[in-house]
UniProtKB/TrEMBL annotation:
This is ERCC1-like central domain-containing protein. GO terms for cellular component: ERCC4-ERCC1 complex; nucleotide-excision repair factor 1 complex. Belongs to the ERCC1/RAD10/SWI10 family. PANTHER family: DNA EXCISION REPAIR PROTEIN ERCC-1, EXCISION REPAIR CROSS-COMPLEMENTING 1 ERCC1.
C-alpha cells in the first residue's frame, strides 16, 4: 500500500530523523557532570600522609581566683559537702582553707582538741603571720565547751586570730564559702546608710535619750516646732507633751543640758539623775558666783540660766576635780602676789581642826571661800 506522503524509503527517513535530532541538540546544549572517577591519583611524586588532628588532653592548672584551696589533710571533713556556692580543690598550702590570697582559715574540732591539745598550737606556729585575716574556725561538737573556748579565745587574742564558732558542719561550711563570696564586697554593704530627710534625722536625735521612742519624738516636735525650742524648754513644759512623763522629761533635760565631759563626781551625779535619785551637788553656787568663777577660769559667754531670767535664784551646779584644782592654783598664785617679798607668809587656814598638813589646810580654806556667799 502506498504511503499517504509519497514513496519514501527507509534510508531517507532515517537520515531526515537523524538531521532533525542533531539540529535540536545544537540549539539546546546541556552540560552533564562526568561520573566520579575511581581511577587512582596520577599526581607525580611521592604520596603525602594524611593530616591527623591532635586530640585535646586535660591539663592540670592551678586554682583560679574563684576557687577555695583546701589542704589535703582536710579530706573527709564533714563540712566539705556543704561548700556549694563556690568551687574548691585540694592544694599544697599551710592553712586548712585558703578562701582568698589574704584570708587563711584553720579548722578545729573541740573533740579532737580535747584529745590532742597541742595540735592547734603547732598549726598556729606553722601559719606564722603570713596572712592579713587569720580565722580559727571552731566546730563546737561537745557539751563541755566552756573551758576550751575560753582558752582558745585567749589564744586568738595573743596570736591575732579571729575565732569563729560553728555548731554544725553545715554552718562551718557556710562560713568558709561566705568568706570567698564576700571577698570583693565593699564595706558599704554593712555600713549604716544615713537618712536624707530632716524628720528622720530629728527622730534619730531625740530617740538617743533612753526611753524615748519615735512617737514621743514626733509629739515633742509637734509641740515645740523645732529641736532648738525643745532643747531650751523647761522640764515642766516637756512634761506637758503627750506621752512624756516625769522620767522622760528629766532624762531629756539631763541629756541636752549636761556637760559632755563626764568624770568623777559629775559621772556619779549623772547616774543618779538617770536612776531617778536627787543628785547631791559638790558646791551650791549662785549666778553671781558662777559669773565670777567663769571670769577667773577664762570662760567667755553667758552663764546658764541667764536666758531664762533667773539671775538671783540659787542654782545647783557641780564642779569637777579639774576645775577645783585650777581654782586652787589660781588662789595660791593670788596669795603669792599679795604677800610682799621678804615677809613671812601667814598660815592659810587657822581655823582648820584636826589637820596636820598645810596642803590640806589650804584646800579646805579654798573650798570654804567658794562656799561663802558674796
Amino acid at each position: 500500500m502506498d504511503d499517504d506522503y509519497g514513496d519514501i524509503d527507509d534510508a531517507a527517513f532515517a537520515a531526515v530523523a537523524d538531521a532533525t535530532e542533531k539540529a535540536h541538540a545544537a540549539s539546546n546544549p546541556t552540560t552533564r557532570a562526568p561520573p566520579p572517577s575511581t581511577a587512582p591519583s596520577t599526581i607525580a611524586g611521592p604520596s603525602k600522609p594524611p593530616v591527623v588532628q591532635p586530640v585535646p588532653r586535660k591539663i592540670h592548672k592551678p586554682a583560679g581566683p574563684s576557687s577555695i584551696i583546701v589542704n589535703t589533710r582536710q579530706k573527709g571533713n564533714p563540712l566539705l559537702p556543704y561548700i556549694k556556692s563556690v568551687a574548691w580543690e585540694y592544694g599544697d598550702i599551710v592553712p586548712d582553707y585558703l578562701a582568698t590570697p589574704t584570708t587563711a582559715i584553720l579548722f578545729l574540732s573541740l573533740k579532737y582538741h580535747r584529745l590532742h591539745p597541742e595540735y592547734i598550737y603547732n598549726r598556729i606556729k606553722a601559719l606564722g603571720r603570713a596572712y592579713t585575716l587569720r580565722v580559727l574556725l571552731v566546730l563546737v561538737d561537745t557539751e563541755q565547751h566552756a573551758d576550751p573556748l575560753k582558752e582558745l579565745t585567749k589564744t586568738g587574742l595573743v596570736h591575732a586570730l579571729t575565732v569563729m564558732l560553728a555548731w554544725s558542719p553545715a554552718e562551718a561550711g557556710r562560713y568558709v564559702e561566705t568568706y570567698k563570696v564576700l571577698e570583693n564586697a565593699p564595706a558599704t554593704s554593712i555600713k549604716e546608710r544615713p537618712k536624707e530627710d530632716h524628720m528622720s534625722r530629728v527622730q534619730d536625735f531625740v530617740t538617743c535619750v533612753r526611753g524615748v521612742n519615735k512617737t514621743d519624738a514626733l509629739g515633742l516636735i509637734a509641740m515645740f516646732g523645732s529641736v532648738r525650742a525643745a532643747v531650751n524648754a523647761s522640764e515642766e513644759q516637756i512634761m506637758l507633751v503627750p506621752g512624756w512623763g516625769e522620767k522622760k522629761a528629766r532624762r531629756w533635760c539631763a541629756a541636752v543640758r549636761e556637760d559632755f565631759r563626764v568624770g568623777g563626781a559629775l559621772g556619779k551625779n549623772r547616774r543618779a539623775v538617770e536612776g531617778g535619785e536627787t543628785p547631791v551637788p559638790l558646791n551650791p553656787m549662785k549666778e553671781a558666783e558662777r559669773l565670777a568663777l567663769n571670769r577667773r577660769l577664762g570662760i567667755i559667754g553667758p552663764a546658764r540660766g541667764a536666758e531664762a531670767g533667773g539671775g538671783g535664784d540659787a542654782e545647783m551646779i557641780v564642779i569637777d576635780d579639774e576645775e577645783e584644782a585650777a581654782l586652787l592654783e589660781m588662789e595660791e598664785e593670788e596669795r603669792r602676789r599679795k604677800v610682799p617679798q621678804g615677809e613671812p607668809r601667814a598660815p592659810v587656814a587657822t581655823e582648820a581642826v584636826g589637820t596636820s598638813s598645810t596642803t590640806e589646810d589650804g584646800v579646805m580654806a579654798a573650798l570654804a571661800r567658794l562656799r561663802e556667799p558674796r
